[in-house]
Amino acid sequence: MTAGPRLVVVGDPAGRRVAFFQDALRAAGLPGARVVSWPEVLRGRARFAAGETVRLDSPGEDAEADRLLRGLDDPARVEGTGLWYERFTAAVAGLARSVAEAGAVLVDDPAELSVLFDKRLGHGLLRAAGVPVPESPTSGPSAPPVRGWEHLRSLTAEAGLRRAFVKLAHGSSASGVLAVETNAAGRVQATTSVELAAGGLLFNSLRVRRYTSEREVAAIVDALAPDGLHVERWLPKASQGGRAADLRVVVVDGRATHAVLRTSRSPMTNLHLGGARGDLDAARAAIAATGGRWTDAVDVCERAAAAFPGTRCVGVDLLPASGWRRFAVGEVNAFGDLLPGLTGLPGSGVEGLDTYAAQVAAHVPVPRGAADARPARTTTAARPDRTTDTGPDLTTRATRTTGTSTT
After folding, report:
1. Alpha carbon separation from 255 to 249, 305, 359, 400 (Å, rounded)
2. What is this structure's pTM?
3. Nearest residue to 56 (alpha-carbon basis) of 94, 30, 86, 82
4. How far lies 151's CA from each of 145, 154, 157, 194, 338, in Å?
5. CB–CB of 140/124 below 8 Å?
6. Interatomic CA distance for residues 199 and 226, integer angstroms
7. Of 52, 141, 240, 373, which is most buried, counting CB atoms within 10 Å of its CB?
8. Could you list the mean pLDDT of each consecutive 10-residue stretch along the chain, which spans 407 residues?
């Protein structure tokens, strides 16, 4: 960002992400940013001015933006991510033109954003850059699109993938993710948070469930295939306390600044699906006990972020292999910084700062005499983080079996 910029944030004016960023600006002694909503952008009403610096944030908390992007009235529905991607990338491209024509500056690269929101393209780019990633038959722009369940079975059989993650190419927050297993006899089961409702409609649920009927698994895959699917090998993960473990690592300007260990008894570690924050120090000790180095894990994340040089901040999902000796990148998230209460890693240079304060410290010049940036203070937008650590936020509907309400 240039010296003394007039900041604009495109996001949800009432959302947590914008509130945390505004808090970080105030803590650094800087004026608050002007906020432009995603519905304004999607309806072509957003306007910018010369000298402004424009930051994009997730539209995930904005129900009206979700309706405009996916064309669905029920935000708990899983379908519609293909249309979401088409409309979102078109809107970002149009926004970039408007920003440039106004003489303003857009912080991040719209072309990279379109890759970050397509797991197939992102996986292919990481693989080409030499970043370790799970094996995938759908990686890169030349890979065949998954046409449905029978095609998926053929692709995984050819690749020798008896255990695979099937993900919406443009999904987030584990929406539409299935952990599929096929035994030697050909029997199939899938673990997922998708609720297959009457009439074949699919809903995001707070309860992870297991489908043991191939007919039901096929119905889910067939319903999701038109939106685009990414398939990758289900790697055996390291564990902590008997729970599968992975990490979200935030990289700002090429340097890993924050990390959270996520653990779960299910294949999905997302906090809103029953995952929990684990003990990062214990994980680092486990890496050292095997003769490995924490810096090797950090290096993988920074190499992944380097594949997107025009994006100032990303969240890298790092998969530690069983035994804590090897690491692979599951994906790189454009809006992976929503980690309330998490402060910077030792030696990162942003110790004591949360992810938003770290970005302000890196990107925005602090006026002479202003207070140093501090961790963002709690606002009315801050609430328990069971739905965070996952990128764009997810709406789920109440599960019939437990009566759990959505948040």
Report:
1. 10, 9, 11, 44
2. 0.90
3. 94
4. 9, 5, 10, 21, 36
5. yes
6. 17
7. 373
8. 74 97 97 98 97 96 96 96 98 98 97 98 98 98 97 97 98 95 95 95 95 98 98 96 97 98 94 92 97 96 98 98 96 96 96 97 66 40 38 51 28
